[in-house]
Amino acid sequence: MKRILFFASLVCLSASVAMTLPTALFTWGKTTHDFGKITQNKPVTAEFQFVNKGDMPLVINNARGSCGCTGVDYPKEAILPGASGKIRATFNAATVGSFNKSVLVESNAEGGTAVLYVKGEVVK
User: Fold this and answer.
1) Residue 109 lies inside a defined structural domain of this protein
2) How many domains, in total, are found in the chain?
3) May I ask which residue range the UniProt record assigns to the signal sequence (predicted)?
4) Which of 6, 65, 120, 121 is most exposed, with minimal Cβ within 10 Å?
């Protein structure tokens, strides 16, 4: 019985310590951008604004599009707590029709990975 109480106390203590550890935290203005109708072979760019609402610097390790048609530009320097930044996703529409592309953002933020989306319809 004492062992059970000891391990239960240890689990509770570990959980409370984990809750007080400093973290970086994305807060996004939006995570999806709808371009609507866009012209074929004419690149378009969406900007995704964010704020680091955590209490430690936010570092984006990598951000990449789901295909070669989506280029991504992201901050290479750490974003301090309370500071903001933006990620730009540029879609080059080579094929006519609807599209729904994603951008995977890998960072030290709580959760580790964020996914942003761009969508629309390419017309001639």
Assistant:
1) yes
2) 1
3) 1-20
4) 6
Residue in 116, 119, 97 with CA at minimum distance from that of residue 34: 119
pTM beyond cutoff 0.70: yes
CATH code (residue 68): 2.60.40.10
Residue 4 belongs to a domain: no
The residue segments making up the domain with residue 68 are 23-123
DSSP string, 35-51: EEEEETT--EEEEEEEE
Which residues have C-beta within 8 Å of that of residue 39, sequence separation ≥ 6? 93, 122, 123, 124
Q: In what order do the strands lie in the sheet with 84-91?
A: 26-28, 44-52, 84-91, 70-73
